[in-house]
Amino acid sequence: MRTVRTKAELRESLDEPRGAGSSVGLVPTMGALHAGHLSLIRAARRACDIVVVTLFVNPPQFGAADDLASYPHDEARDAALAEAEGADLLFAPATEEIYPVGFTTAVEVSGLTDVLCGAPESRGHEHFRGVTTVVVKLLNLVQPDIAYFGQKDAQQGIVLRRMVRDLDFPVRVDVLPIVREPDGLAMSSRNRYLGPEERGRAAALSRALRAAEGAAAGGERSVDAVLAAARTQLREAGIEPEYVEARDAEDLTPAKSFNGRPVLVALAARIGRARLIDNTLIGG
Q1: Which of 88, 5, 74, 90 is nearest to 34 (CA)?
Q2: What is the pTM (predicted TM-score) of this model?
Q3: d(C-alpha 5, C-alpha 94), whole Å
């Protein structure tokens, strides 16, 4: 695996394989790799001739309530994990390489980024503006055939698919299943912020989603009733959620029932220092 740090090095490294007709898979990450990230790299390795993994902690997607400085960094560890899964290129640029002096452009997807994590009382739509802007840059630089993301960030995947469609990027966005701990907690780089007691309570997030699934599978069609089942699990664990919502899985409009179209049940909560998100798809 080769590590490159500049846009010029990245393009140069991809010129020859792309010219030979090799397929390219892109796995964008902010580092602090865990089993969820590794599942994306393995999927890219199976499907593509060349696998590019990026390590870049993207400042614009961190809001005022997020501590950018404390986000975990361990490039040597991440590089070793990516190489072990078969990555060919690791792109680990400095911030000024991605956002040089005078950079003023932003990419924004309207209609999908002001709800759930994009709501003003949550991270705000500026978070997704930071995500879409950096992903556009990475897609332009790497020009992959397939880009890989995780279902834990379900809203992000919906936003990026819309962006790719609207801007005519010739890339397929693959969103792969959540990888979970044995107790159901979704893998996240922020799980390391949890103390032992907080870690135990955090498992209630996945229990809440299972409760929602169970209510819907049992024939409950009322959105309020299904979400109430989820909130009961959170309340019993002493967790006050930032949100627990049911949204259409394609356009993120509020779900009216659990009949027909797939519904995304998504939640977010702060537990200690960690802001955690999780979700499940019901129906469809």
Answers
A1: 74
A2: 0.96
A3: 7
Phi, psi of 267 (to 5 degrees): -145, 160
2-60: pLDDT as tens digits:
999 999 999 999 999 999 999 999 999 999 999 999 999 999 999 999 999 999 999 99
User: pLDDT tens, 172-204?
Assistant: 999 999 999 999 999 999 999 999 999 999 999
Structure tokens belonging to residue 207: 């229990």
Helix (H, G, I), strand (E, B) or coil at 221: coil
CB 234 within 8 A of CB 208: yes
Cα angle 79, 83, 85 (rounded to 5 degrees) comes to 125
* Selected catalytic residue, list 34, 37, 73, 125: 37
127 given a catalytic annotation: no
Beta bridge partners of 71: none
Q: Which domains does the chain have, with CATH numbers?
A: 2-176 (3.40.50.620), 189-278 (3.30.1300.10)
Q: Across the chain, where does the E strand assignment appear? A: 2-4, 24-29, 50-55, 89-91, 146-150, 172-176, 241-248, 263-271, 274-282
The residue assigned the tokens 């959620």 is 241
- Say which residues have a Cβ less than 8 Å from residue 27's Cβ, sequence separation at least 6: 37, 40, 41, 44, 51, 52, 53, 54, 87, 147, 148
Place of tokens 């797939």: 262
Per-residue exposure over 174-213, b if at least 16 CB sit within 10 Å of its own CB, e if not: bbbebbbbeebbbbbbbbebbeeebbebbbbbbbbbebbb
Contact 198, 183 (CB under 8 A): no
